[in-house]
Amino acid sequence: MTMLRFMTAGESHGPCLTAILEGLPAGLKLDEAAINRDLSRRQAGYGRGGRMKIEHDEVKVLSGVRFGRTLGGPITLQVANHDHANWGARMAAFGEPEGPMVTAARPGHADLTGVLKYEREDVRDILERSSARETTMRVAVGAICKEFLQALGMSVVSQVLEIGGVKADPARIDRSQLGQPDTTEVGCLDPIAAEQMKEAIDAARREGDTLGGVFEVTVRGVPIGLGSHIQWDRRLDAQIAAAMMSIQAIKGVEIGAGFACGELPGSQIHDEVFLGEDGFPCRKTNRAGGLEGGMTNGEEVVVRAAMKPIPTLMQPLHSVDVASHEEVSACKERSDACAVPAAAVVGEAMMAYVMAAAVCEKFGSDSICDLKKALRAYNERLRKAWCAR
Ligand code: EPS
To answer: What is the DSSP-derived secondary structure letter of residue 306?
Structure first.
């Protein structure tokens, strides 16, 4: 079992969403505003729909923190669903069922398989939990993990690279802007592509359609040797891929050069190793995305994820009704035309969690002071052992 773990709870239109994060060291300074900043970033982004006008996600910390510092115990986080006030008895925990049932399953969503597997009659029993609203709590947890990593000199940032087939041009991307407050409404650092992405989202919305895309998450300041080659489930690349894949609507993940590794010869893929000015090994390229043998190699960790278009279409697709068993048009309530900028923020959060868990595992996590000392001693040992030869 990993030393750092979290679990979320809550339905999209229930009273609130909750998370419990356990395993962070005691004594870590936390800033509530940093959590709320990431919650707002998740809500923003061009292409969001009506729900984001109702919600103003703000965290309540209910345990594990005292006077701005962690206690080492489970941290309980809560975010209210303001929309719950409009749903009242339809989401009541007890009492007779109220309100119309949802029976026309949406292709691409958990609706149909969930109803069959869990033996439900109302698709709402499935969609309330499968909704990407749950990612609110992942972002709150991730924001805390980011603060932890930041205390150790690490940062987690993201950018949107593609929406609906419109691709950012790497030549127009200034990577020094990564992590700065979002400059374009789609989270893309290429301003020309960003405008084209917005036009594509507008066109999709006009046609009652939705768009997916690709985002990239980068971790900087990473120590050498997080994760391990020793066993399959200790490989950090595997843990990162699983964490990214666990985000609603993610269908593809690649690390570093990713799928290009299947096309190019070894001479153009592997990052050659040199000696830096300080005599310590370094690389001039990072096609490995900072991971070799399931371990971080000290370079930036770079991961991309592809998100499919949201399955709630205003021009619904052909489907089936789980009550009448007839062919129908899928249900539609309201939807986001595109949530890729939001997914990038969730990607940062999941990455931050995986990296934080790997740090806790390697350096111990009772107290932040002990952990910092252990990290410093380890880095010194690596350099001393290399230079002594
Ligand atoms: C979301 C809240 C949801 C959707 C979206 C994400 O609100 P509602 O269902 O009330 O419109 O906007 O949900 C989905 C993408 C989905 O597939 O269910 C949020 O807070 O991110």
So the answer is: E
3-state secondary structure of 374: helix
Asked if 168 and 220 count as a contact pair (C-beta separation under 8 A), the reply is no
Could you tell which of 131, 205, 331 is best to mutate to test the pocket of ligand 1, judged by most ligand atoms within 8 Å of the CB? Answer: 131
Ligand 1: residue whose CA is nearest its atom 21: 133
The CA distance from 313 to 331, in Å, is 8
Per-residue pLDDT tens for 311-347?
999 999 999 999 999 999 998 878 899 999 999 999 9
All domains in the chain, ordered by first residue: 5-387 (3.60.150.10)
- How many angstroms separate the alpha carbon of residue 134 from the centre of ligand 1? 9
For ligand 1, atom 3, the nearest C-alpha belongs to: 133
What is d(CA 300, CA 149) in angstroms, rounded to the nearest whole number?
14
The tokens describing 58, both together, are 């703000």
Q: Ligand 1: which of 38, 51, 345 to mutate, most ligand atoms within 8 Å of CB?
A: 51
